[in-house]
Every structure is written in C-alpha cells, then in structure tokens.
C-alpha cells in the first residue's frame, strides 16, 4: 500500500536547522565563563578534562537532565556542557544545584541557520506541506530566529510555525488529570508504546516521552490521525525520532557533523526503520520524501 503523502514536516531545531560546528567552541567557552561567574571556580583545564570524560562515556551514558537517560551525553555541545558541569559537581561532592548557565551562553553563541534551510523550507511548502518546529529550545527564541530568516519571505510565514519548549528529554507519562482535551483514542496510542528499545546500547532507549507526545499533539492540532502523513526530522535518533517512529510516522535522521558525529547505534536504529526511515548530511535531503 503506498504511503500517505507527506503533509507535515516536524523539524527539530538545534543541529537540524542550525550549524553546530560554527559555534560549539564559543558556546563551551561562554558556558565556562557563566559557570565561574556563578561562583564555581572551574579552570580551563578542569573544564576540558570533564568534557573528555563525558565524550569517552558517550553514547553508553545518557543525558540525565530530567532524571532518566534521554540522549547520548555528548550528542551536542549543549548536552555535553550540562553533563560536564554535573560531572565536576559530582567529583567535588558539591551539592549545589547547577544554575541555568545554558540560556545566556546559548543566546550569545547563536548557531547560524544551515545554508540550505530557507531553500529547503521553500521547496517543502511548494510541495504542499507545512512545517512545524518542535524543539526543547524556547518558542520565543526560535520564533525570533525564524522571523529574521523569513523577513523577506512573507509567502512562507504562515506555513512555518513553532511549537517548542517540548521537553523531549522528559521520560514520563502523560500529564494528569487530563483536561479533557486528549481523546481516549489518542491517549491509547501513548499507552500502547513500549517502555524502551533494548539491545542497541547497554542502557535502554526510552520511548515514553509524555511531554514530547503532548507537544506533537499540539503541533498536529490535536489530531494524531495526521501522524501517517507526518515526517519527523531530527539529529538525535533517540530523542527526536524513536517515539515518532513507534507512533507510526516517517523519520529522517540528519547526520551530525564532527566533533559530535552520529553514532553507529543511531544508524542501526535508523536502518531498522526500513522504508519509513532515511538520512542525509544536508537538510535538503528531506526533499527525497517528496519524489
Ligand atoms: Mg537537535
């Protein structure tokens, strides 16, 4: 049976729409500066050493920002900085909570859009699909970036929307008590999800990401029957794509560039998606789905 045409593309933002190699060194410097301004007194050597330890343990160890492993600890500079800072606190037996250092470093080292972002968005819209950006980053930040990109493209402005603050890293059940907005049929799709995939890494790859599920429902105007015509594109398989695939959507893995390259287990997971999974190194690789 031929697949439904793609009528929605759900895009991750960081690393999927943006160029991480252009900014990661600056981001990591700014993170260290913020760490020290918050009173933690970390030397450049200690900071580098912590990053090396995190890298050496990735992807077997997972990002624990919300209490369960949610992505490889060195999948991108934002996750790696958070994990390196937490490692330093553990090594020092410093029990102070890590302050929010990311937000200012992230905004000050804003990653440029991929060179082919605007042309790719334009082509997707020409094919009759709309684009929704669903990311962990803030809706306000991404909306600001998007309005600059689309400044001269009023034809695209109402075809590309942002449904962010998605909390994809939260391994959790649906929020309760439910406000009556989620249909029994949609809730049943979440309930039917397996807890995790096992066997690719020593740790499980968790699928039940309740916050992300709710963000996807909002992105699809509360109609999960639209999943069969939805393509998800992201650069971290387990966080962006594993659950959407399990829910029946098509998925596209964008290869991460050095020094945060895509891991072999992600390629194996993608290969197991068969005809519902593809990958590319450039964003315009997404257009293959429309041929
Ligand atoms: Mg990403």
Structural notes for this entry:
With 291 residues, the chain is of the alpha/beta class. The chain folds into two domains: 192 residues, Rossmann fold, CATH 3.40.50.1000; 85 residues. Helix content is 38%, strand content 10%. It has eleven helices and eight strands. The strands form two sheets. Strands 3-2-1-6-7-8 form a six-stranded parallel sheet, with helices on both faces. It has a two-stranded antiparallel ribbon with strand order 4-5. Strand 4 and strand 5 form a beta hairpin. Helix 1 runs antiparallel to helix 4 and helix 2 crosses helix 3. The longest helix has 16 residues. It is globular and about 55 Å long. It binds magnesium ion. Magnesium ion binds next to loops.
| CATH C-level category of the largest domain | Alpha Beta
| Fraction of residues in H or I helices | 25-40%
Total strands: the figure is 8
Estimated radius of gyration: 19 Å
Could you give the order of strands across the largest sheet?
Answer: 3-2-1-6-7-8
């Amino acid at each position: 049976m031929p697949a439904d045409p793609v009528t929605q593309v759900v895009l991750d933002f960081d690393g999927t729409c943006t160029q991480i190699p252009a900014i990661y060194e600056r981001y990591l410097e700014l993170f260290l500066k913020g760490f020290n301004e918050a009173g933690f007194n970390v030397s450049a050597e200690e900071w580098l050493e912590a990053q090396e330890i995190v890298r050496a343990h990735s992807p077997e160890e997972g990002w624990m920002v919300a209490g369960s492993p949610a992505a490889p600890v060195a999948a991108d500079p934002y996750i790696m900085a958070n994990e390196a800072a937490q490692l330093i606190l553990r090594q020092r037996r410093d029990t102070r909570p890590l302050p929010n250092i990311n937000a200012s470093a992230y905004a000050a080292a804003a990653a440029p859009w991929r060179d082919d972002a605007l042309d790719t968005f334009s082509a997707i819209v020409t094919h009759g699909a709309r684009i929704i950006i669903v990311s962990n980053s803030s809706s306000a930040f991404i909306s600001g970036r998007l309005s600059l990109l689309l400044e001269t493209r009023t034809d695209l402005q109402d075809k590309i929307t942002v449904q962010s603050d998605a909390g994809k890293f939260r391994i959790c059940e649906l929020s309760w008590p439910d406000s009556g907005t989620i249909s029994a049929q949609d809730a049943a799709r979440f309930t039917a999800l397996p807890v995790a995939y096992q066997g690719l890494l020593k740790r499980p790859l968790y699928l039940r990401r309740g916050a992300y599920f709710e963000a996807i429902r909002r992105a699809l105007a509360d109609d999960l029957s639209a999943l069969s015509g939805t393509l998800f594109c992201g650069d971290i398989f387990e966080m962006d794509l594993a659950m959407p695939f399990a829910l029946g959507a098509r998925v596209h893995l964008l290869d991460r560039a050095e020094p945060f390259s895509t891991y072999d287990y992600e390629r194996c997971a993608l290969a197991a998606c068969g005809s519902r999974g593809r990958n590319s190194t450039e964003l315009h690789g997404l257009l293959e789905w429309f041929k």
